[in-house]
Amino acid sequence: MKALLLVDIQNGFCPGGNLAVPDGDDVVPIANRLIESGKYDLIIASQDWHPPGHGSFASSHPGKKPFEVGTLSGKPQMLWPDHCVQGTPDAELHPDLKMGKIDLILQKGENRNVDSYSAFRDNDQDALTGLADFLEGQDVTELDVCGLATDYCVKFSALDAIEMMPGVRVRFVEDASRGITPEGVTAAIEEMREHGIDIVTSRKVLEG
């Protein structure tokens, strides 16, 4: 079984969103080609789904501004603009994404006291989303990961996949992803490669 994990392709991370990734919406047509390719037995989308006043929001820390480092539950935390608040348009998956072939949408980041970059577990590596068990239950042996943003949620999802599902081949689809900074993307790709994650393009996937 081969699966595709689409990480946080939401309005909030696309141009016009509250935490826009540069050119974030460029991933949508590429993701759609992957979705419709027939290469995957299973397609999953993750969705940042924060309650109002989430502890990762700079607005929850008086005197702090977005993109400053603060603390959350006693640990260092990058502070973000309010984004992907439950039930708001900012949290919705991008309207052009081909939703009809997505088999599972899982939501993360609901605990206001801990952030959740990975689609598999929160940043404390304590609370699990159940994704690993779900994929193992479906006998998934190959997992392609892409989406937004490369240097945060995509990277951590891919790293957790390879750690939590030994024996599963994990690939990062580079051109179906965008990051917050060029430096962050370069470092994320190198870290993923060092952990045994294959770096591929959508063309390689579609021609494979």
From TrEMBL:
Keyword Hydrolase: yes
Keyword Hydrolase: yes
A molecular function GO annotation: metal ion binding
InterPro entries assigned to the protein according to its UniProt record, in alphabetical order: Isochorismatase-like_dom (IPR000868), Isochorismatase-like_sf (IPR036380), Isochorismatase_Nicotinamidase (IPR052347)
Pfam families referenced in this protein's UniProt entry, alphabetically: Isochorismatase (PF00857)
Ranges of residues in domain Isochorismatase-like: 3-202
Enzyme class: hydrolase
Keywords for the protein's UniProt record, in alphabetical order: Hydrolase, Metal-binding, Pyridine nucleotide biosynthesis
Gene Ontology BP term (one): pyridine nucleotide biosynthetic process
Pathway: Cofactor biosynthesis; nicotinate biosynthesis; nicotinate from nicotinamide: step 1/1
Official protein name in the record: Nicotinamidase
Organism name: Rhizobium favelukesii
Gene label: pncA
